[in-house]
Structures are given as C-alpha cells and as structure tokens.
Amino acid sequence: MEKKYSLFHVEGGLGKHVASIAITKTIKNNYPDRELIVVCAYPEIFINLPFIDRVYRLGNTPYFYEDYILDKDTLIFKQEPYFTTSHIHKELPLIESWCNVLNLEYNGEKSELIFNFRQRQRGFQLWNRERPIMVIQTNGGPLENQPYLYSWTRDIPYHTTQELVNYFSKDYHIIQVARHKSNILANVEGVYEPLSNMELFSLLLYSEKQILIDSSLQHATAALNKKSTVLWVATSPDVFGYDLHDNIVADIPRNFKLPDSYLFDYNFNGALHECPLLTDNIFDINEIISSVESI
Q: pLDDT tens digit string along 105-162?
C-alpha cells in the first residue's frame, strides 16, 4: 500500500515550536493513517515524540520534494497562525487559532516534551544542587539581535526580581535565566550563555519552583505539566498562556498611542517610544510571593 503523509511546517521561536507540539498531536489524531513529517527550526524537541515519523531542519531537506510531494498523497499544514483574524483580535488561544487555520478538529490536545535517557542524565549532571532549585527567567525571547537587552513588553523589572531573590534565597538555590550581557542578580547562579535547547529545558526537570515570563520556558513547563508562576506585562495569557499556570498580569495603562503598531499592539522588542510606563512598579511583589508559595 502506498504511504500517505501529513506534512507540518513551523517557523519562529522556540516557545512557538513547543506550543506547536499540540498541533502535531492534533494532526495525528485527525489523520491517524498518515505518517507525520515535521519541518522546523528546532527538530530536537520533536524527535523523541513517538507519533512523529520524521523530522527535518529548515533548510536541510534534501530530495524532500521527490520523497514527499511529487505524485504523493500528502496533506500540507504550513499556514501561519499569527495572521489569523482570531489571533490578531485575541479571540482565541494561539493553539485554537492555529487549528482553525489548518482546518483541524481540536479536542484539547496539549504539548509534551519527552527526554531520552542521555538527555535526562545530562540534565542531572548540569542541574543537581544541594538545595531545591528555583528558576527565575528575567528576560529572554526569540530575537537574538534586538537592540535592547530589556524588553518592557515581557521582561520582569530588575528590582522586582531582586526582591524575589532576596525573599526566597534562604530556602532555594536560585538560577537566573537571561540573555547574554543582561543585568545579573545578586545571590543567584546565572544561565546567560547558550545551552542546547534540551539542556535548558532539562533544568525544569530538576527545579521545584519557577517564576517565568512569556517565553519558551513557560511553554516548556506547560508541556511538562509543571505548574509555574508566570508574569505577563503587555502580552496576553489568554492567547499565549496556559490555565495550568498561575498567570499574574501587570498593571499597565491601556489608553496610549501606538503610532508604529500595525496588526498587533506591541512587538516583542518593546519599542521605547511606545512604552506607556512611567515607573517599573508594575507588579505586586506580595502577590507573586503568595503565588509561588502556593504552588
């Protein structure tokens, strides 16, 4: 019998890739008789998933057309969810908008991350500590060459994270995840240099508490079914977040000018002239502490 294929293509950042694992599950559940082929920027997060048959890195697809397209029974799932009406108007979570644009029946499929033996072993070597680990991601994101280390739209103000470190450091070994050359907190172990994606995600296997932002680690903790405290500034947990987490939204003004915004209100860079904040006191520190202690 001639093979039939489903081809899923995803571009964008690491967090979007982790979220898209739910899409691959949905495709497989909608078309269980087809082999599932994934083309992506980060193949390592898909390769351990048993329902995916083959994974290719973007730009490294030799003979792909002949193998999967020419005279083949192949369904193509390559549409971009970010430019759908429901996503732009923030009417649905990203996963649901994505399934709609791909004409998939969504039944609540969730992402998952699977680590093989060596990846778990490597994670233990990297992250075994004497005290329980707390992870704090102060900043980060997909834009490697953005002009500012601090993005007001997503990152946690420095004084807020330092207060959290001061409070929790007596009980936890705190590991800060941030961009290279970012502000380094006092009394933390920093992860500022690049790791492999699975090495970074393995930190979550060995951490007890997580204070995160809208970036790849909050998607990864959801994929590991590990509840975390996630702080949101200008992006929306209703669109990019998960009910599993305790989502805390900053108090920021909403009636201000956005002269350079087109289809979206903010970009991940956090343009300086569109920042509505007159102060960086945007979170209630006691609310964060209460959230972390309750998880």
A: 999 999 999 999 999 999 999 999 999 999 999 987 645 566 677 888 889 999 999 9
Domain membership flag for residue 92: yes
Note whether residue 106 is domain-resident: no
Do residue 131 and residue 18 come from a single domain?
no
Question: Are 51 and 179 contained in the same domain?
Answer: no
Record the pTM. Answer: 0.94
Q: How far is CA 192 from CA 12, 100, 104, in A?
A: 21, 37, 39
Q: Dihedral through CA 89, CA 95, CA 101, CA 102, nearest 10? A: 180
Two tokens at 86? Answer: 């429901």
Angle between helices 94-101 and 14-30 (to 10 degrees): 50
Token output for 7: 């081809």
Contacts of 220 (CB under 8 A, 6+ apart): 15, 18, 113, 201, 204
Q: Which domain holds residue 140?
A: 122-294
Q: Is residue 110 included in any domain, yes or no? A: no
For residue 141, give the amino acid letter.
G
83 domain-assigned: yes
Please name the residues in contact with 290: beta carbons below 8 A apart, sequence gap of 6 or more. none
Q: How far apart are CA 278 and CA 152, in angstroms?
A: 11
Number of domains in the chain: 2
| 226-257 confidence digits (pLDDT tens) | 999 999 999 999 999 999 999 999 988 877 77
